[in-house]
């Protein structure tokens, strides 16, 4: 037995008309968020804030690239980037990257030398990160063509049933969809709208995701994920 984690909010996005053909706007300020991997693919998601919407306009995955290669590929896409949002593990130093005196460098430091300043998403519990995605989902609009692989990943991101303990797993099943969903989780935990309050929270409140029919959706209290 399996259960979709984002199936209900994805179905709601489709029924609300938020999976559509978005115009390609290379002139609009853009944010890019990542799940960074070496053995696993690195996934980049490009998002353009527009009025109350967060337009998810593009997605790409690469295998085995260094941070230098990732930055090069992102720049080649031509979007005017306002912010780069990366996962917390960008702070970890790698023996393969060295600075003055042979000191090991983190990908964060290497990126800085290449003119890129990452905003690092906070390290949260997985459940809190998934909750952040769900709370923000009502503001997402997805380009159906350029983001087709991300949409497929969101529908395939699942929990599995443990027949012995008769419970669903706490962690999602790790497969190809995980990298795409982790990149969206990086954005959802790292993004803050401009015009934050003094407490560091954005003045505009993110709406709770609403339930919908399809993908086995059912009513849920805050912090609960369909299983």
CATH class membership: Alpha Beta
Count of domains: 1
Total number of beta strands: 12
Ends apart, CA distance between termini: 10 Å
Characterize the largest beta sheet: strand count, sense, and whether it forms a barrel.
7 strands, mixed
Produce a short descriptive summary.
This protein has 227 residues and is an alpha/beta fold. The protein has helices at 7-15, 67-76, 107-113, 126-136, 148-156, 176-190; strands at 2-4, 19-20, 30-35, 42-50, 53-62, 81-86, 94-98, 104-105, 118-120, 140-143, 158-162, 167-168.
Describe the structure.
The protein has 227 residues and is an alpha/beta fold. It has one domain: Nucleotidyltransferase, domain 5, CATH 3.30.420.240. It contains six helices and twelve strands. It has a seven-stranded mixed sheet with strand order 2-10-5-4-3-6-9. It has a three-stranded antiparallel sheet with strand order 1-11-12, covered by helices on one side. The chain has a two-stranded antiparallel sheet with strand order 7-8. A hairpin with a 5-residue loop joins strand 7 (94-98) and strand 8. The radius of gyration is 18 Å and the shape is globular. The termini are close together.
């Amino acid at each position: 037995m399996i259960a979709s984690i984002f199936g209900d909010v994805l179905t709601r996005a489709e029924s609300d008309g938020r999976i559509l053909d978005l115009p390609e706007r290379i002139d609009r300020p853009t944010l890019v968020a990542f799940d960074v991997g070496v053995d696993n693919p690195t996934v980049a998601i490009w998002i353009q804030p527009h009025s109350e919407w967060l337009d998810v306009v593009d997605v790409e995955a690469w295998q085995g690239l260094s941070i230098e290669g990732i930055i090069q590929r992102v720049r080649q896409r031509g979007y005017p980037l306002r912010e780069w949002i990366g996962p917390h593990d960008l702070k970890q130093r790698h023996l393969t990257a060295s600075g003055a005196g042979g000191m090991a460098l983190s990908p964060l430091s290497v990126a800085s030398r290449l003119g890129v300043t990452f905003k690092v998403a906070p390290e949260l519990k997985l459940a809190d990160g998934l909750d952040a995605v769900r709370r923000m989902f009502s503001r997402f609009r997805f380009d159906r063509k350029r983001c087709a692989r991300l949409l497929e990943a969101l529908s395939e991101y699942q929990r599995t049933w443990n027949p012995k303990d008769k419970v669903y797993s706490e962690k999602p099943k790790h497969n190809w969809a995980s990298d795409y969903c982790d990149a969206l989780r990086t954005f959802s935990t790292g993004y803050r709208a401009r015009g934050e309050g003094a407490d560091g929270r954005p003045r505009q409140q993110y709406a709770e995701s609403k339930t919908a029919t399809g993908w086995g959706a059912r009513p849920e209290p805050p912090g609960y994920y369909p299983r």
